[in-house]
Amino acid sequence: MKAVLLRQLGGPEQLSIEDIALPEPGPGQVRIRLHASALNRRDVWITLGQYPGIRLPCSMGSDGAGIVDQLGPGAPANLLGQEAVIYPAYGWGSNPRFPSPAFRVLGMPDPGTFAEYLCVPSSHVFAKPAHLNWEQAAAIPLAGLTSWRALMTQAATQPGETVLVTGIGGGVATFALKWATALGAQVFVTSGDEAKLEQAQQMGAAGGVNYRADDWDKQLAKLTDGVDVVIDGTGGPSFKGCFSVLKPAGRLVVYGATAGNPPGLDMVRLFFRQAHIIGSTMGSPDEFAEMLRFINKHHIKPAIDQVFPLDQAAAAHQRLLTAEQLGKIVLRSA
């Protein structure tokens, strides 16, 4: 089969497509003939050597969708032929509040989804939403689940609340906009790109501000009377603004820190306003199932930025590296 491999670090240009042995499912596993997979920033970081525990050579990819074409010993017979979307991690464990020490994301060091076939535990196979095509289904797993846990579990967002999603354009932020608007929340966004702000409003955002403005938080305050929930993956200098726009008892959920640590925090404001700052990452299989039920109920379709054939994986990663996308970048493998 064909698979995308990384044999040395140095960026997306180091990716190559190679012929490797077709995998055989082990006990309790199934093999999936992948129709599509999707990129995450994690994949680019691996190519650049900016991710912990890199082992070379490796295959990457955490998001995938396809058809179960072979069963390993003990795998449920009813899964054969199922159109599936894959839970994108291993080892969450039994505690719904926190992953176990064995937790790891699918792809590197384990075989990933940037391939024509992949073997996974049968428990990681979930039915593909019938209203989605392969590219849309493949776009969901990692970013969708990260966003779902941040917005629904950690922030416990309710219909009618006001939500701020920072850095609209990336997968997690775009899914947060999708989930929150479907829930019935009022959503505002930030971006450094005016075109993305316009696109976000076309997708259902009530408004947006450009975070490159020094007073972006004051601009947002004019549009709202404060926000109940902030979903932020940036950190850095803009974190102060995220905190300042929270209503009393507001929840600021952090799923990343691409701009580094924030320079300071107003501790007095934190305790007097009963604010909550909450960390969040990925999600459990149960949350994955909840998310898929929500997608089916509301007929949600992920935002797709661009689709590339599998053999253009390097170009797809370069697209992600530019940070110009709005929505998910997808690889079509069949």
In short:
This protein is α/β, with parallel strands linked by helices. The chain has helices spanning 41-47, 134-138, 141-154, 171-183, 194-202, 216-223, 239-244, 267-272, 285-298, 313-322, and strands at residues 2-6, 15-19, 29-38, 58-59, 63-71, 83-86, 89-90, 104-105, 117-121, 125-127, 162-165, 186-191, 207-210, 227-232, 246-254, 276-279, 304-309, 328-332.
Number of helical segments with 4 or more residues: 10
Give the number of DSSP strands.
18
Can you tell me the CATH class of the largest domain?
A: Alpha Beta
Order of helices and strands: EEEHEEEEEEEHHEHEHEHEHEHEHEHE
Structure description:
With 334 residues, the protein is of the alpha/beta class. It folds into 2 domains: 2-140 and 302-332, Quinone Oxidoreductase, Chain A, domain 1 (Alpha-Beta Complex); 145-279, NAD(P)-binding Rossmann-like Domain (Rossmann fold). The chain has 10 helices and 18 strands. Strands 3, 5, 6, 9, 10, 17 and 18 form a 7-stranded mixed β-sheet that branches. The chain has a 6-stranded parallel β-sheet with strand order 13-12-11-14-15-16, with helices on both faces. It has a 3-stranded antiparallel β-sheet with strand order 2-1-4, with no helix packed on it.
Describe how the helices and strands are arranged.
Layout (H helix, E strand, L loop, with lengths): L1 E5 L8 E5 L9 E10 L2 H7 L10 E2 L3 E9 L11 E4 L2 E2 L13 E2 L11 E5 L3 E3 L6 H5 L2 H14 L7 E4 L5 H13 L2 E6 L2 H9 L4 E4 L5 H8 L3 E6 L6 H6 L1 E9 L12 H6 L3 E4 L5 H14 L5 E6 L3 H10 L5 E5 L2
Parallel strand pairs: 11-12, 11-14, 12-13, 14-15, 15-16, 17-18
Antiparallel strand pairs: 1-2, 1-4, 3-5, 3-9, 3-18, 5-6, 6-10, 7-8
Helix pairs in contact: 3-4
